[in-house]
Design a protein that fits this description.
By secondary structure, the chain is mainly α. It is built from five helices and two strands, in the order αβααααβ. It has a two-stranded antiparallel ribbon.
């Protein structure tokens, strides 16, 4: 079965194509939160979520270039450390120390896996391309 991510990964490896993934839900999400402090938190989390989505897409694109299909577990192993860095640098954990590194790593893997699930839930027809080779 072709998924959004697999199709996007295949398209990204074609020269002369530019792929856009649009995450247009962010502004509406801020309007649903009740206080300014909540809006600030949402503002701090939207960019990292977009970065995580971009990493998942990049890992999928790299996997598409291999001669042997890469299982999802291996793609998750590739994405998890990068997702951990995004989370650490995002400000969401500002002033906090990691007490349980294994649980943090597990949580980062869950974030990466969850974002892959979110992207795979999109209809593959949602992959839009534009040819700039002309």
């Amino acid at each position: 079965m072709t998924t959004f991510l697999s199709k996007l990964g295949k398209v990204m490896q074609i020269a002369g194509k530019v792929v856009g993934v649009y995450m247009g839900f962010a502004p509406g999400l801020a309007m649903l939160t009740p206080t300014k402090k909540d809006d600030e938190f949402v503002g701090k989390t939207i960019e990292p979520l977009q970065q995580v989505a971009a990493i998942i897409v990049q890992v999928e694109a790299m996997a598409q270039t291999l001669d042997v299909p890469l299982p999802g577990t291996d793609k998750l192993k590739m994405a998890t450390p990068i997702v951990a860095q995004i989370i650490l640098q995002s400000g969401v954990l500002a002033g906090k120390k990691i007490a349980n590194p294994e649980l943090f790593k597990q949580g980062c893997a869950s974030v990466a896996s969850g974002m892959a699930d979110v992207l795979n839930s999109i209809k593959e027809s949602g992959v839009e391309t534009k040819d700039f080779s002309d």
